[in-house]
Structure formats: C-alpha cells, structure tokens
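Chapter summary example.
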Amino acid sequence: MTLPTFDMNRLTPLLAGACLALSPLACGDDSSTDDGAQAGSAGDTSPSAATSNDDAATDDGDTDVATSAVGSGDSTDTNPSVDESSDTAPPELDDFSFFMTSLAGLQELSGNPQGFGGNLSYDGFIGREGADRICEVLAEMSMPGSATKEWRAFLSTSEGDAIDRIGEGPWYDRNGRLVAEDLAGLLQERPAGDPALADDLPNEWGVPNSAPEGEFLDNHDTMTASGPDGRLVLEANGMGPMGGGALSTCQDFTSAEPGQDPPAMGHSWPAMSGQSWVFVGRHGNGCEALVHLEQTGADCGGGSGVGCGGGYGGFYCFALNP
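The structure predicted for these 322 residues follows.
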C-alpha cells in the first residue's frame, strides 16, 4: 500500500475506524530476561484486574489492522469520543498532545504485520524524523487537523535526548485527559496526570493500549532508548529490574538488521519486571521488526526483535503545539 504525502497547508481530513475504549484489563506474566537471566514473576498483574497470562493473546502475524482512511476519504470515524452530531470536535480534543503508537497503526503505515522494528524511516523521512512523521500521520488519522501540532517521537539518539524535544507541557490524550502538567510530572515512574490513564497509557484513539480491541495483549514494552531522565542510555549498568547489558539506538532508528543490541524500553502499563513508563532496562532482543504478544522471555522462544519480551516496537508521541 502506498501512503500519500500530506500537504501541510492543505490537509485533507482523514477519518478512521477505531475500536471502542474499554476499561484497562490485567497484565499477564512478564518474564522478560536479560541475556537469558530470569526477570519477572508468575504473579505479575495489572493494577486494575486479575487476568492471567493464560488470557493473553498470542500474535500469529495476522493481527487485524484498524481500517484507516488514508487515501480513501470516505471512511467513517466510529470512535465514541467524537461528537458526530457536529462538524466541530469537542473542545477538550483541541488539547490532544500525547499517545502511544498502536500496533494497528504501525502495521498500517509500515505495510508489514511485524511493524517497523528499529528502522522508523517513513515517507521520505529518515530515522527519528521518520518516527515524528509516523506520529503526525497517526494523529491526523485519529483527529483531523492534529497534524499541524508538530509531533515528536519520544526517542533518544546520538543526535539528542528525547526529553529535550517534546516541549514543556501540559500534555493530554485524545479524550482530553491530563497525562502530565509539566516535565517534573512527566518524569516520574508513572506520569502524574489523570490516574485513569497513568497505568495504561492510551493509543492515538484514546483507548487503553493493553486491550485496544477489547482483548488483552501482552504489549507493554515501548521503545525509548532513554534512561529514567529521558536521556540517551547505552548501558543499563544495573539500573532497572532488568539489570545491566548493552543497549542501542538501532543506528539512530535507521536499522532493523539483526545482530544489534535492543534499545532501552519503558512500559506503557506496569508489570512486576518494571513499573516505569520510560525506562525498565534491557527488554527486547535486537532491532528486527517483530510483534510478540506473549511472554516467552526475551529470546522469543529462539527469535529476535524489538517485540521480544511483550511488545511490537511501539513508541510515545508528544505534540509541541497542543
């Protein structure tokens, strides 16, 4: 599928189908390992329920992709948070300035059921700038007009730290809920905003990412390449529950080739192996594109890729101009 390039001065409103928002479901076991070391607990649960890992969905490479209106112009937005009786979005949506990239969104834009992996180059933009473009397109698909807000991926590289590129706040999700008032509130174990979303950070549709289509997914690992301070980290040095181990930026997010160390990860929802949204240490196992939504440890049962440990290579997006 070929995606059009947006004219920033003449954005065509895009409408997309989205899944209904459900209450956050439970976390499963998280037994991700660092170089084969055990890290996790059979007792891992989310803060809100007791769904076990037995209920977690296993990705088989055929995950349904939410229908998008990219290039079509005739889809209907079914997200319940949008007032379809008016041509004007609810005022609180004007603050839309944060989301976690959804699995369906990354599959749609990459044209690959395994997502982008560590190479986030997209639509003519290279590396982290490609990730910024991904944020922009996903935001526009969710809420037409949002692409003008100058979206930035929360990713550190050799060219700069994630925390220095996202502004000063405040930030809100698609449904107008506060994520964090400022940088001090953001750089905590969980963002100090609305507690309804802090422990299950929402995707571009404002839906809790642990169950974007109503079924629990073990998808908490989120690429940041950043330490607890939001700055580039290339060696865990014992920090975080995963301990030490070499980390990378996947060549500043331009490479999904095998044989590389993984980027540092945060957790979009907390688990016993790591509570922090920005840094839990060495999860994943390489830079290859990979969706792996069950806990088999960081070796993915013999495989390798950014999804190892429970994820799909998702990342966070912030708007500079909410």
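To summarize the output: Helices lie at 103-110, 128-142, 183-186, 195-198, 250-253.
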